[in-house]
Amino acid sequence: MDNIINHQFRLAARPVGLPKDSDWQRSAEPVRAPADGEVLVQTLYLSLDPAMRGWMNEGKSYIPPVALGAVMRAGGVGVVLQSRADQFQPGDYVMGGLGVQEYWTGPANDRAAALVRIDPQLAPLTTWLNTLGMAGMTAYFGLTEVGQAKAGETVVVSGAAGAVGMAVGQIAKNLGCRVVGVAGGPEKCGFVVRELGFDACIDYKSGSLKDGLKQHCPDGVDVYFDNVGGDILDTVLTRLRMHARVVICGAISQYNATAPMQGPSNYLSLLVNRARMEGMVVFDYAARYGEAAARMGQWLRAGTMKSKEDVVEGFERFPEALNMLFEGRNLGKLLLKVAEA
Amino acid sequence: MDNIINHQFRLAARPVGLPKDSDWQRSAEPVRAPADGEVLVQTLYLSLDPAMRGWMNEGKSYIPPVALGAVMRAGGVGVVLQSRADQFQPGDYVMGGLGVQEYWTGPANDRAAALVRIDPQLAPLTTWLNTLGMAGMTAYFGLTEVGQAKAGETVVVSGAAGAVGMAVGQIAKNLGCRVVGVAGGPEKCGFVVRELGFDACIDYKSGSLKDGLKQHCPDGVDVYFDNVGGDILDTVLTRLRMHARVVICGAISQYNATAPMQGPSNYLSLLVNRARMEGMVVFDYAARYGEAAARMGQWLRAGTMKSKEDVVEGFERFPEALNMLFEGRNLGKLLLKVAEA
């Protein structure tokens, strides 16, 4: 494989605020041929996720930070080019932690990469990084297990036009909930209502979120699925119903903040309303991904759930593509297309 | 009863910050004789609780605010002087919402007052306003139901030398937990360790709470019972174990704040640790008070639980006595002694 070059993005510095170009180091090295038990995978699509910003910081979290100088961590789908392992054949499509690089060589049973075969007949490759991938799993288990959403309840989800938000809203609709999204701008709000069937979506940039919640959730909020933190979390807390559940999935509004983290000053609404705020990390549900994929697969086939991806083409555009997440410029799951399938 | 005068404290103004003397209106009126179905109760002790500060504010909460001009709401124990109701006889001791006044006349089945007969042979009158009253019930159900504390777990409780905190720590010890208190000053800390059997108590005023938590909870915190909010809540959040439970019972550090409420800026620890923060209001467990009283009564008789009261004598001292709570000057359950039993 000496004549093929593997281009990579490595973490050069821990960003302060929004990642900038100098936080990345571009590298290029010959593709390494697989040893015994190993496979060589060509990256086709990479998943760009808000959580990646957290992985760039130093300090204890739910997984170790990316080391300085290491290839940036990312999930992706790829195709097996060579295999010296029983589990995979050349031509197999796989999903796993490929990293921000064009090729991945390693043990077929590598724990960090956690490669699994995917079937492009069942769903397009991009869907495997979205509804049938981490975003969909996060939404499914966050809403059903942590949020305990039940038919007839009112579910509010922020980041409604992001990958997790879109899935949360559609899963909730399939469960018989009333769904109100929160998103920035008329395009996003219009999309989730018209295309995805949300009952309403509040454009927090163009009006008062509080008034929107009063209008669209007159009896209050049973489940709030929070992807953003900050002022939006704080405002929704004022509108909880008794025994409400707040699912803490992320806080994208705070990931690039250089000021101290903003805590939810209205948290005593949890006391008044006997409500709960609970965090979740999708990896805890790994043993049950199949169950969720089967159920969401049914909804996708039945047309009661749609998988929407926003694809940026070109490996070299990784830095700007990642920042689109934090600038709120993506509509649906943001993917980087690295090579043709 | 025309020759007996009932002195009262009424709410004259909604306080800004710590209640001041001009927020109270002293009144005096003849004691009203009971009508048919009514009783006349003489107040013996009044319970002084942090929650009373919240009742003085305008706005929606878990119970309506005290109206301006109304007798201040308070729980108390008293003795029945006259009865024209079947439920009570003169000489009976009762507990209920007597208000900040020397005498209470009203229907024996008044819902707001919720009078119940208590047995001074089973426990002293003051214990009925403490361990066997709201403070004990709050501690018991907050710790066992919301906090789900289990033997072998580490429980941290703030306001450890207050009525609820003392009960929380002692209940947790009886359940087989390791208990670390947080309190202000060496006297309080020494008391809960030496007299009540806490494993440790961190004096947040004299050193670093964070260092104290590292020392006394090296494996982290399973259950945090929060009575204070503010910086203490924020610091404990950084030391949660996986699947920890944070019980939000109160936020005494914030009740008199005139600045905006301080939210817990480290709330994303809930995500990293798959932890939960949940509010509670003791009234929800009213149907089960008997169960808790029976269990705590056993512990009191066995000597594995102690009821500690801090009694201020003299009805006229109500305003200064209430403020002792917010100035952290009480050790144990703060009571106002109104008359001799």
Task: Describe the protein's architecture and organization.
2 copies of one chain form a homodimer. Chain A is α/β, with parallel strands linked by helices and 341 residues long. In chain A, helix 3 (134-146) packs across helix 4 and helix 3 packs across helix 9. Chain A folds into 2 domains: 5-130 and 308-337, Alpha-Beta Complex (Quinone Oxidoreductase, Chain A, domain 1), CATH 3.90.180; 134-283, Rossmann fold. In chain A, helix 5 (186-194) links the parallel strand 9 and strand 10 (200-203). In chain A, the strands form 3 sheets. In chain A, strands 3, 4, 5, 6, 7, 14 and 15 form a 7-stranded mixed beta sheet that branches. The first copy, chain A, has a 6-stranded parallel beta sheet with strand order 10-9-8-11-12-13, sandwiched between helices. In chain A, strands 1-2 form a two-stranded antiparallel ribbon. In chain A, 25% of the residues lie in helices and 26% in strands. Strand 13 (276-279) of chain A pairs antiparallel with strand 13 (276-279) of chain B, so a sheet runs across the interface.
What keyword list fits this structure?
Quinone Oxidoreductase, Chain A, domain 1; 26% strand; alpha/beta; six-stranded parallel β-sheet; 341 residues; homodimer; globular; seven-stranded mixed β-sheet; Rossmann fold; 10 helices; 15 strands
Low-confidence stretches of chain A: none
The helix fraction of chain A, in percent, is 25-40%
What best-fitting shape of chain A do the alpha-carbon axes yield?
globular
Tell me which protein chains meet in the greatest interface and how many residues each side has. Answer: A-B, 33 and 33 residues
